[in-house]
Amino acid sequence: QLTAHVPTLKANLRAKEQKTTEHIKIEKEVATKAPVEDTASFQDPRIGQKGAIRQKRNLAFHEAGKFQMEAQRLRMKSQLEKLQSEISSIARKTGISSATQLAKLVPKGATEDDQPDLEW
Questions:
Q1: Alpha-carbon span 9 to 40, nearest angstrom
Q2: Could you give the residue ranges of the DSSP H alpha helices within 43-106?
Q3: Does the reported pTM lie above 0.85?
Q4: Using CA atoms, how far apart are residues 62 and 71, in angstroms rounded to an integer?
Q5: What is the pLDDT of residues 10-53, one digit of tens each?
Q6: Given 4, 15, 40, 43, which is the most exposed site by the fewest CB atoms within 10 A?
Q7: CA 41, CA 50: separation in Å to the nearest integer?
Q8: Residue 117 DSSP one-character state
Q9: Chain centre distance of CA 61
Q10: Alpha-carbon distance values, 38 to 29, 32, 45, 48 (Å)
């Protein structure tokens, strides 16, 4: 690879610096003039100049014990399902198909209309 020629005399170095600074100054002038004209011609008047402002959000905490109560409710629900499945399996084994038939087997006791022996 060939390297670029680098001047070694101070006079040559100063001349090279002046050229680069002149190019930079010209580029800056062009850059500052061009965007002003371009932005004015391409700017939409319907859009406001202000940027979007971000709204602050307040912290929202959960109630104390909320998740513990939910976990306890789920445990109770699973326990109830387990008991129901046990009852249904026992009922299948004994041949009782529904709760109404189970109620027929259990004696009602003194729930019938018993009238006293004496009249008032």
A1: 47
A2: 66-94, 99-105
A3: no
A4: 15
A5: 788 888 888 888 888 888 877 776 544 554 567 777 776 677 78
A6: 4
A7: 19
A8: S
A9: 15
A10: 14, 11, 14, 18
